[in-house]
């Protein structure tokens, strides 16, 4: 309110803080901001809001978990709180307890359905976003109990036939459990299904337990009720879990009475439970006879009757016409197919970079994910996502997903250009004004050329990609700004020559400005490598400056600034063969490792393959990557446990290994691993959209002779210049 500015609120806050023995929060924030470049926007409010929610849960975790370690907790808790486990994290001065060592989960679902259940590494199923979970145990009559979250070893895989299905298997002392979790279509509605099979050498009970927790921590349950037929739960009066047969025994517990696990042998049976603090646990028990397999099916409806009817053949339709990979490397093949499934799952209309922590929209992630959709031939899905963009553009032309990120406009215009290049279509009429306004925003946002300092003429200091560091004049933003203006030039070239030339001239002038700024860095650092900003030393944040080479291709593949930057990163910022981002992420990054690999591939540097293989080795058994990977546990340590930007980069990496554009020509086969050519099975990829049209590539290895490379194109115009660059094989 306007009158607030007249109140001496800063003085009041300071006085109250001192009276109660606290540091002055305003002075402290001022000190924090002094470590960043002056900026019109601090940390984006969206990230602050998300951080508050994240740590609020962590605060609840700290109040509940460590005082109740006799409960059965999710896998990450069992490991992170175990002092004998490599994932152990001390808690002494940690205000919040957060999953920092095993942030891994796998999304399951149906195409174009927004609900994305997740499964953790031990089969814990969380049907609803940020909600409660379902766990399966096996209790023998002699008291032995198989608890998957406490098993040091288990087998997990993802099956893709007919849509993603996560299978988890574990055995211990004659007890065996297998769960299969997926989302199926029943009567036109999405239903989360979990099929559990149990086998024991002695008689016992299969236990299905309702858990007030998930892969992030506590998720409250206040009330649960068992149906009169004993074949369903109602959770908090709204969500339902159906069993394929009635429960023979049923127990519930609350926070004061402890976990329901300690009540499994109770003689008294309860049909409902309630907990004022939201820590209801429940267990439905089903008889298992000695030596016989017992199967139980759980169903959790994800949609009500008002939801649109969905297709029963959704996966076949969603993947129709996609670029197929056929290669002799089973791991690469599986990771490619799993990545395609991830892209489809996370693009119900908008695109999401994850099913849980990142189930929201950013232009940055969207640009890369949509690019992967386009390059994989999923054009309609990509176009639908692009049509969600204009509603997020402000009147001044800014494509805003969160304030202070000055790369967004360039990324939007660049991906629009790629869409029109890959489809061969002219710029849609309804897109002309958003593109014009978006390009003008870039021009207007730039700083004056007349100010002192190497940031003159660049985009302002901003938060940009959070892993580059505090607010600064990031070259990442500038490279995307240039790419955006060049995209506007290209998009308007066939329809408005004057506007096209205007934006083309703007791109050239902006590029020259950045070159002058980079020259000051070269003089200061005594090497051509590009730091994150004009005022930074070379550090891990320099990963952002690789955008000049990948994916924007603003420079030649052998640009010394680009290659020296990559060399610095390879020498100083790699751990276990992968890029280690020591700022914010503090983990190994699959998608950023692949950015370096793409730069090396363009330059014809064979070391790219070591990086790609390292990323393949870091994938989970279900074919996913968390955003950042703990160097010791190799579990997730930051971000979403199923990171779709990483999936997108794997698709783009495979595609560019087979076919990529370089100027006015196509390069075929430059990234094919030499080991693939030492066997005799054909290798295929396609049809793959390119800026010249779609192409299918077939490589026929002939051990002892040169491989044969053939292609079939459906060109927008005439066939482009094509260069085959297969790697050399061993003699």
Automatic annotation (TrEMBL):
InterPro entries according to UniProt: 6-hairpin_glycosidase_sf (IPR008928), 6hp_glycosidase-like_sf (IPR012341)
UniProt-listed GO biological process terms: carbohydrate metabolic process
Superkingdom to which the source organism belongs: Bacteria
Designated name of the protein: Uncharacterized protein
Organism listed in the record: Marinobacter adhaerens (strain DSM 23420 / HP15)
